């Protein structure tokens, strides 16, 4: 694994990223806060270490953007909510502390869907985040700013969060790679919670090797270069794709991916999720987010209702009206679904399905309710999942292919995804 900054010194690399932010962000609104002085100081420190041949590993000098629901000491953590504009974090989140220890250069904090509860990143307080690939279109959410920053070339990689698909959905819409690891494989300490049972961190980058570099760098271990391929691997495909309505090009994407996997020697098998109702489970997961989010933000909302948008007040108000019995019923149904998925994954090396049922859509369009029908599966099971750009719809907007593995099999997932990226037509 290379430990060098891609081009020039770390300072030169950071300056290029900052220049790109200056060029693109007035239109994109991908960033809530740009950390120019802090980034250049970190880059200079990286160069000083390089001069002494004392680099801190593969992330030393690389540029990273941080979703603004992740704490950075001395800076506000807004979670995309106006009320928290001045809520300065007293300490770094565990993952931010690790990034700093690795010598990464943090260029800014990224925009997101308000409270991380939504998948458009049309934020009423910090600006409507735009898809870098097409003006007027959503980058997805809730980690829309992180995906937009990566797609626009503003950083080497970005951190997001993923509660129902919030890192993988924007990755698919922006044509980048989004990885949600096994539950708790990256600590969420210092991350503003939405629903702790579903919350995960996520890594977004342009390619799978770049995601893997960030993943292994954060863990302080060398990337596993196990010689493996797809020959004989059991790859599961869901018949009927859970009866979810598919948008333009998604069925074609699955056909080409299936052909590629077959040609690579995979053993394609029919995956079964008995009793699975994608729409009902997605609604249950969203209700749990409303209930748990109300518990997190309820006191602040009561004291400062104008610091929360009317739609968010409505969502959290609904959650606050649900009792412990209703929450327990939702949690029980989701637990059954998690067991069903883990039983399915137990007999597979990979489960392959779309990331989203559609490509990115215009901000002016009706928001599809089924965006998370395919992504919420992995959150329920705590399983690692990755969105890989794969083809496009008829208008040229990218589509995402989702790979899911058994919990704990993050290294296998990243390795197979990297191989599939190379094999991609």
Secondary structure blueprint with pairings:
Blueprint: H1 10-28, E1 31-34, H2 36-51, E2 63-67, H3 94-101, E3 105-110, E4 122-123, E5 127-128, H4 144-151, E6 157-162, H5 168-174, E7 177-180, E8 200-205, H6 208-219, E9 234-237, H7 250-263, E10 267-270, H8 278-303, H9 310-321, H10 324-345, E11 350-354, H11 376-381, E12 385-392, E13 398-404, H12 410-423
Parallel strand pairs: 2-3, 2-6, 9-10, 9-11
Antiparallel strand pairs: 1-3, 4-5, 6-8, 7-8, 7-12, 11-13, 12-13
Helix pairs in contact: 1-2, 6-12, 8-9, 8-10
Report the CATH topology name of the largest domain: Amidase signature (AS) enzymes
CATH superfamily of the largest domain: Amidase signature (AS) domain
CATH architecture of the largest domain: Alpha-Beta Complex
Termini separation comes to 26 Å
Q: Could you write a compact summary of the structure shown?
A:
The chain contains 12 helices and 13 strands. By secondary structure, it is an alpha/beta fold.
Keywords:
425 residues, 13 strands, eleven-stranded mixed β-sheet, disordered N terminus, 2 domains, Amidase signature (AS) enzymes, two-stranded antiparallel ribbon, alpha/beta, 12 helices, single chain
């Amino acid at each position: 694994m290379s430990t060098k900054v891609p081009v020039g010194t770390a300072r030169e690399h950071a300056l290029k990223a900052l220049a790109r932010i200056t060029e693109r962000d007035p239109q994109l609104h991908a960033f809530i806060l740009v950390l120019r002085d802090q980034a250049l100081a970190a880059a200079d420190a990286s160069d000083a270490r390089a001069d002494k041949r004392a680099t801190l590993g593969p992330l030393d000098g690389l540029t990273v953007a941080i979703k603004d629901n992740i704490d950075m000491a001395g800076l506000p953590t807004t979670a995309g909510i106006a009320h928290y504009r001045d809520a300065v974090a007293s300490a770094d989140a565990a993952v931010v502390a690790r990034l700093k220890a690795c010598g990464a250069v943090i260029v800014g904090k990224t925009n997101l869907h308000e409270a991380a509860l939504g998948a458009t990143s049309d934020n009423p307080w910090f600006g409507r985040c735009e898809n870098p690939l097409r003006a007027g279109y959503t980058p997805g959410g809730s980690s829309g700013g992180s995906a937009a920053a990566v797609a626009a070339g503003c950083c080497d990689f970005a951190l997001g969060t993923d509660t129902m698909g919030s890192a993988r959905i924007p990755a698919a819409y922006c044509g980048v790679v989004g990885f949600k690891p096994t539950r708790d494989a990256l600590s969420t300490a210092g991350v503003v919670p939405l629903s702790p049972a579903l919350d995960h961190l996520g890594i977004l980058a342009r390619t799978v090797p770049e995601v893997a570099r960030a993943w292994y760098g954060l863990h302080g271990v060398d990337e596993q270069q196990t010689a493996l391929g797809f020959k004989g691997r059991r790859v599961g495909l869901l018949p009927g794709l859970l009866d979810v309505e598919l948008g333009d090009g998604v069925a074609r994407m699955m056909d080409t991916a299936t052909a590629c996997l077959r040609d690579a020697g995979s053993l394609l098998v029919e995956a079964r999720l008995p009793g699975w109702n994608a729409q009902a489970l997605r609604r249950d997961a969203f209700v749990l987010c409303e209930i748990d989010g109300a518990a997190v933000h309820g006191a602040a909302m009561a004291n400062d209702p104008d610091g929360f948008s009317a739609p968010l007040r409505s969502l959290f108000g609904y959650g606050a009206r649900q009792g412990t019995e209703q929450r327990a019923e939702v949690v029980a149904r989701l637990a059954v679904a998690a067991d069903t998925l883990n039983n399915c994954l137990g007999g597979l090396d990979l489960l392959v399905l779309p990331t989203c049922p559609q490509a990115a859509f215009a901000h002016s369009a009706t928001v599809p309710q089924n965006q998370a029908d395919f992504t919420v599966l992995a959150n329920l099971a705590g399983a690692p999942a990755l969105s890989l750009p794969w083809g496009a719809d008829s208008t040229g907007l990218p589509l995402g292919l989702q790979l899911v593995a058994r919990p704990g099999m993050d290294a296998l997932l990243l390795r197979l995804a990297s191989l599939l990226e190379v094999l991609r037509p």
